Amino acid sequence: MKKLLAAALTTTALVGAAQAQEIKEFNIGILGGENAQDRLNAYECLGGYVEEALGVPVKMFAPADYNGVMQGLLGGSIDMAWLGSSAYAGVYIQNPEAVEPVLIKVNLDGTIGYHSIGFARKDSGITSLDDMEGKVFGFGDPNSTSGYLIPSIEIPQYKGGITMEPGDYFGDVTFVGGHEQTIVAVNNGDIDAGVTWADGQGEWEDGYNNGALRKAVDAGLVDMNDLVEIWRSKPIPEGPIVLRTALPDDVKTTMTALMDGLYETDAECAYGVTAGESLGFRPVTHEMYESIVAARLSKAN
């Protein structure tokens, strides 16, 4: 797959001319979870590569929440996005033909999963979920895998017999808007604990190798020495890069090759796009996400 990138970029003029007759622009959605301008800045380098490869203008969209990107893909106004597993499942449930999952991020050790990480301030005295009774627990976005879906299933299993309803075990359960908002809210003491996503590899002090904590450290938002991990989910399949199914086949082939080879082409650009250190991407299919689709359906019933 990576060999396709060189061919795609060396035939830019021919490919771009052919595709310009079918698409007039290419729109990339950037999932919520952090400041919109930071998201746009991280993807700026990618936009240049896409314009070169397709020969059409590229527009970036950074909606306030996950649903904005999901609805853009469903409505045809967004052509490509890197979705979380739950957001992909949500799109698939609404329209199985809307998008195609093509690539999945690879961690430094070759794995393709991540974790929902529960965390609190170190000076709060909270070291596990056992210390969270009566406390305020924050979640990011209802369409987030690590920021809601998986912890809403696994935490009640961990603390058998509880629910996620405010006032049952936790004093309150609240949505704060996204991963960055959750991290800042915990760090500022606005909520007692929250959940976010990370590969769980590398050093805690660095925010691990990859994920929202790493991005928060890079942005200077937190000092990880002020925080402590209090819970970790089972491994979650990394979300897919998806392409709108209705795109011309040559556009999908070119974009898949470009994204698959981004790490080798520009490691710094890949760092920003993938939220930290990684080995880039590898091919993936819908089968990887069938358990997440089932989990979303179970929560809807």
UniProtKB/TrEMBL annotation:
Q: Which GO terms describe its cellular component?
A: ATP-binding cassette (ABC) transporter complex
Q: Name one GO biological process term.
A: transmembrane transport
Q: Which UniProt keywords apply?
A: Signal
Highest taxon of source: Bacteria
Glycoprotein in keyword set: no
Secretion signal, residue range per the UniProt entry: 1-20
Pfam families membership: Phosphonate-bd (PF12974)
Family membership, please give it. Belongs to the phosphate/phosphite/phosphonate binding protein family.
According to UniProt, the name of this protein is Phosphonate transport system substrate-binding protein
> What organism is this sequence from?
Celeribacter halophilus
At the highest ranks, the source species' classification is: Bacteria, Pseudomonadati, Pseudomonadota, Alphaproteobacteria, Rhodobacterales
